[in-house]
Amino acid sequence: MSMRRARGVDRLRPGLTGLAQVNSFDGMTDERKVEWETEYASRVTFIHDLSIVLRTFGYLLRRPPVY
Predict the structure, then answer these.
(1) Cβ distance 56 to 21 under 8 Å?
(2) DSSP string spanning 14-60?
(3) How many domains does the chain have?
(4) Which residues contact 17 (CB under 8 A, 6 or more apart)?
(5) What's the pLDDT tens digit per position in 10-56?
(6) What contacts 24+ positions apart, CB below 8 Å, involve 40-45?
(7) What is the C-alpha separation between 54 and 64, in angstroms, rounded?
(8) Does residue 66 lie in a domain region?
(9) Domain limits at 38?
């Protein structure tokens, strides 16, 4: 939580999806998740949000990775 606060991403409104979710992989570190959230916070636009939603649908339709 302190990493999120230090980078200001704790002020983001929660949503259904995000960059960390569509770029996730099993075992992603909290630090990497905060990096994705920081990248998102620097580019908050309607078009960027729409692209994340579309990527979410693609992510859900793919075959899950095998680890």
Answers:
(1) yes
(2) P-S--HHHHT--TT--HHHHHHHHHHHHTT--HHHHHHHHHHHHHHH
(3) 1
(4) 52, 53, 56
(5) 888 888 888 888 887 777 888 898 899 899 888 889 999 999 999 98
(6) 40/9, 40/12, 41/7, 41/8, 41/9, 41/12, 44/12
(7) 17
(8) no
(9) 2-61
The one-letter amino acid code at 2 reads S
Give the pTM.
Answer: 0.74
Report yes or no on 54 lying in a domain.
yes
Copy the structure tokens of residue 56.
């979410």
The phi, psi pair for 45, rounded to 5°, reads: -145, 160
- The answer to whether residue 29 is domain-embedded is yes
